[in-house]
Write a structure and sequence with these properties.
mainly alpha, 95% helix, single chain, 1 helix, 62 residues
Length: 62
């Protein structure tokens, strides 16, 4: 194997590793964002329900 072939293979391997790292980072980031969206959506719904309940309780005791 000549030096150019070896260098080319090394560069190709590095490029693939770099792409894999970037892809994994994107997957992790996307998962975290989806998880936060789910948590925030749930919190938002809980707050809406609490507001509705508070309003009904106030109306009930008037």
């Amino acid at each position: 194997m000549s030096d150019t072939d070896r260098e080319r293979k090394i560069k190709e391997r590095r490029r693939k590793l770099k792409e894999n790292v970037e892809r994994n980072k994107n997957k992790i980031y996307r998962f975290k964002v989806e998880k936060l969206d789910r948590e925030n959506g749930l919190k938002g719904r809980i707050h809406k329900l609490v507001d509705i309940l508070e309003k009904r309780i106030d109306d009930f005791f008037k």
